[in-house]
Amino acid sequence: MVIHTDMFRGKKVLIFGLGLHGGGVSSARYFAKHGATVRVTDLRPRLLLLSSIRRIKKGSVSYVLGRHRTRDIDWADVLVKNPGVSWSSPYMEYARRKKIRIITDIGLFVEHVRAPVIGVTGTKGKSTTSALLAAFLRTRWRQLMLAGNALYSPLERIDTLSSKMPVVLELSSWQLEDAAYTRWSPHVAIVTNIYPDHLNRHKSMSEYIAAKELIVRFQNRGDIFIANKENPYVKLIAKKTRATLIWFSKKPFKTGDGVFLRNGMIVSRTGDSEREIIHSKYLRLKGRHNLEDALAAIAGALVYDIPKTAIHNVIKRFIGLPGRLETVRHLNGITYVNDTTSTTPQAAMEALRTIHGPIQLIAGGLDKKLPLGKFCSEIKLRSRVVILLPGSGTVRMKKFLLRLGVKYHLASSMVEAVHLAKIHAEPGDTVLLSPGCASFGVFLHEFDRGDQFVREVAKFA
Fold first, then answer.
1. Is residue 1 included in any domain, yes or no?
2. What confidence tens digit (pLDDT) does each residue in 284-318 have?
């Protein structure tokens, strides 16, 4: 056990944001289990939160849903902030004025955990990198925990963790900000890449980069930073680190330790010594970006001396995660691919470049205030049919596409989008859901968007 079980006994704990990905659920269960009086508040109505509520023991917590109230903050001894709630929220400002203790699940975890933590962040690829690295490490530690971001709260298993077995945490920029008050960085930090994202929450690109940089800010000389040598923003962060630097790259590099690709072979170098690990042809992941994810995960595995044979075995069976260039069906010569997690233009462009042959693209959604010009040019170059989902990002995309002379179809729902794709599809086409935008408004979240796509495609006879 790493947190004293009586720390919150008898305390009034307000979970500020239940959410739909499980973090709020884990927090509510954790504090209720340890004797706190727990109240949950969320702006969403009860109907939209039923899937989360059903995972919490009936009667163990109370709920205030569809609104936030300052009197709930007044009631609390401790406020547990969901990562989706900004620190600049007027409710957080009110809590600070009232001197209510504000904590986060990730902050509480890193303050008290004694296990070595491997933290993975990046604009794109952090989920795949985290999952693949965890698969490598589980060849040695079968019970290794993978948590964070859209997975589940690390509080879920904090009472049972060994101090010797590492933990893999996938960390968003919001979670890194949530951990910053503890002045913590992981023992091993991995940054997959940095591209413009979340500029609807962060005020500028420099603010977004500063949030990502928190993953290494409090590292020391005994720590390790695994960094993308081809990404200029990551290289800027690498210049500031005190940790041991390990690079990864799709291109050979002449100086420094790390993992790189040479003539298709993945090679590891430490000092003057090089060794071949595995040929990239054995990777089952699609796309150049996924190759980078594999290099980063292999670099992490080698830090923990995972043998080549174990790396080989995992690589050959690892097929990736749902919603990430996931082929969900082949029917009548048409391939259907779910890439719903491409919520940025950069990620969607990588998906377009990965697919060979004619593409019917389903894209659009909520605006994240990111540059769309290059994405729309890539759409013109690579898409035979374009179908746009509703949203403020779509409004901006339409203007770019019109200037480029690209025709498009508008769909009011995923049902309509998939129906339009079926009408226009021809043998040899790939119907690709790769939105390049956020999902909120029409969908509960990006995974709901992908699930709806998969369900509609499954209905085809």
1. no
2. 998 888 999 999 999 999 999 999 999 999 999 99
Taking only Cα atoms into account, the Rg of the chain, rounded to an integer number of angstroms, comes to 23
pLDDT tens for 62-85 read 999 999 999 999 999 999 999 889
Region of 333 on the Ramachandran plot (φ > 0 left; ψ -120 to 50 alpha; else beta): left
With a threshold of 0.70, does the pTM exceed it? Answer: yes
3-class SS at 443? strand
Q: Are residues 129 and 196 in the same domain?
A: yes
**Under-50 pLDDT residues of the chain:** 1-2
Regarding whether 343 and 280 lie in a shared domain, the answer is: no
Is the domain of 307 the same as that of 355?
no
| Token digits of residue 106 | 């990730």
* pLDDT of amino acid 213: 95
3-state secondary structure 222-244: CCEEEEECCCHHHHHHHCCCCCE
Distance CA 386, CA 363 (A): 8
Interacting residues of 70 by C-beta distance below 8 A, sequence separation 6+: 91, 94
In one-letter notation, the amino acid at residue 249 is: S
Q: How would you class 220 by CB atoms within 10 Å of its CB: exposed for 0-12, middle for 13-18, buried for 19 or more?
A: exposed
